[in-house]
Design goal:
The complex is a heterodimer of chains A (203) and B (237).
Chain A: H1 4-13, H2 21-33, H3 36-52, E1 54-55, E2 62-63, H4 69-72, E3 80-84, H5 87-96, E4 102-105, H6 123-131, E5 143-146, H7 152-165, E6 171-174, H8 190-198
Parallel strand pairs in A: 3-4, 3-5, 5-6
Antiparallel strand pairs in A: 1-2
Chain B: E1 2-16, E2 20-27, E3 31-37, H1 46-50, E4 56-62, E5 68-75, H2 84-100, H3 108-122, H4 127-141, E6 150-151, E7 156-157, E8 163-167, E9 171-174, E10 185-186, H5 187-194, H6 201-219, H7 225-233
Helix pairs in contact in B: 2-3, 2-4, 2-7, 3-4, 4-6, 5-6
Classes of the chains: A alpha/beta (203), B alpha+beta (237).
Chain lengths: 203, 237
């Protein structure tokens, strides 16, 4: 119904998550009809971002710099390393605001059936980071906090990393799972409750 | 066709379209079933958490063709928390089932064998006998049952002192003198496997090699990823 260029724009917009044919049409028409300047800006920043953004050399999160803001920040605690699955998890932990160490982003989790193995999630790079001697004893990584998701794949990933890190003279810990704060026990699913009970601690 | 409240284990789930999941289920009455769970990735509802591997659910689905639609599902109050090597072994079971079990092929016994195996892995029992037991059971369900007591070519019983070879379509037979040593099976090992007695390391080794050899033609050339993963963690195994 539309001319080829408009059709192509709609087809391209559909690569976004949650955008079907109808939303793509709405977006394309909006950009062309009402907001040409915005469209121009969007095109430019998309192009720049795709060309420029790569991964941080230390923690693998997305950045256009050699090292991301957190890795480059000298005021953060170098001796703590938190391992997460996605850049989104880094953001969530940062917003919680209590963690002052650094991160390592796997960009995925182990999933044998899907054929995703340790080499796909940068475990070798992580181990190298743990073995690396920064020269200054205070900068040596003392503890690795495994904050992969509490799914079976996340557990499998955490176990794999803990086994590989065993002989490296580093403490390996796993974040706690259990009852959410402010929740009511009655409405919590059985799996979470069972887990909360099995990993209870004495006061 | 509508199916109501069928017990099912989740073998695997993967993203499908924007907000749905494609789940592989193991059920007692229908064997392995692949179904779409529509819209479960949209919000972080507790429902999404149920569709993780190894959770047991009661599911309803409809549809006749290959792709079924999961109309509803609920937890079956049965929670496993598998750890370490036992978790990896459970992944191995799932990978075997997803790779080998044809869809909608009724395998009533397999569901219960799987359930028992998971329960034993949860109790952190010795892994090898469990996996071997499941592998031979799976072969049996797929139509390759091995008779661990019979020498098929000579029609006599397996003797503890004898030496045997095995072919997936036939079973055990007295070994020819020139077969590679790796394939050679001592009668006592075969009888021990039949009795489920894996206490001797030689029996374990033999059973593992035998299971791998029998599964290989069915699995084809693609490697089993969970096995590779297990090997990386346990290099001496």
């Amino acid at each position: 119904m539309f001319s080829p260029l408009i059709d192509e724009l709609m087809a391209s917009l559909r690569c976004l998550p949650g955008v079907g044919p109808k939303s793509a049409q709405r977006m394309a028409l909006h950009l062309l009809e009402r907001d040409r300047a915005g469209a121009e800006r969007l095109a430019m920043s998309l192009q720049k971002a795709v060309a420029g953004v790569g991964r941080c050399e230390r923690c693998r999160t997305l950045t256009e710099q050699k090292f991301c803001g957190i890795c480059a920040n000298n005021r953060r605690d170098n001796s703590l390393l938190c391992v997460v699955e996605t850049p989104g998890d880094v953001l969530a932990i940062e917003q919680a605001g209590t963690y002052q160490g650094k991160y390592f982003v796997l960009l995925g989790h182990l999933s044998p059936i899907d054929g995703i193995g340790p080499e796909d999630i940068g475990v070798d790079q992580l181990i190298k980071l743990l073995q690396h001697d920064p020269g200054h004893p205070e900068d040596r990584i003392r503890e690795v906090i495994l904050a992969t998701n509490p799914t079976v794949e996340g557990e499998a990933t955490a176990y794999y990393i803990s086994e590989r890190a065993k002989n490296l003279n580093v403490t390996v810990s796993r974040i706690a799972h259990g009852v959410p704060l402010g929740g009511e026990l009655e409405f919590i699913d059985g799996g979470t409750l069972a887990h909360a009970f099995s990993s209870r601690r004495s006061l | 066709m509508r199916v109501d409240l069928q017990p099912a284990y989740i073998l695997h789930s993967r993203p499908y379209r924007d907000t749905s999941l494609l789940v592989d289920l193991l059920t007692p009455d229908f064997g392995r079933v692949t179904a779409i769970a529509r819209g479960v990735r949209k919000t972080k509802t507790p429902k999404r958490q149920l569709l993780n591997p190894f959770s047991r659910l009661l599911v309803c689905w409809q549809g006749k063709t290959d792709m079924k639609l999961l109309t509803s599902f609920e937890a079956d109050n049965h929670f496993l928390s598998l750890k370490g090597n036992h978790l990896y072994s459970a992944f191995y079971l799932n990978e075997l089932l997803v790779r080998l079990l044809p869809e909608m092929d009724r395998h009533n016994g397999l569901f219960f064998a799987y359930e028992q195996c998971l329960a034993a892995l949860q109790q952190e029992l010795d892994i090898e006998p469990l996996l071997r037991g499941f592998e031979f059971r799976l072969l049996e369900e797929l139509g390759y049952a091995l008779d661990f007591t019979l020498d098929v070519r000579n029609g006599c019983e397996i003797e503890a002192q004898g030496f045997y070879d095995c072919h997936i379509q036939e079973g055990f037979y007295a070994a020819a003198p020139d077969i590679p040593e790796a394939y050679l099976l001592k009668g006592e090992w075969i009888l021990a496997i039949a009795a489920g007695n894996y206490s001797a390391p030689a029996t374990r080794q033999a059973a593992k090699k035998l299971a791998r050899r029998m599964l290989k033609p069915l699995l084809g050339s693609k490697p089993l990823h969970s096995r590779e993963l297990f090997k990386q963690i346990n290099p001496d195994n």
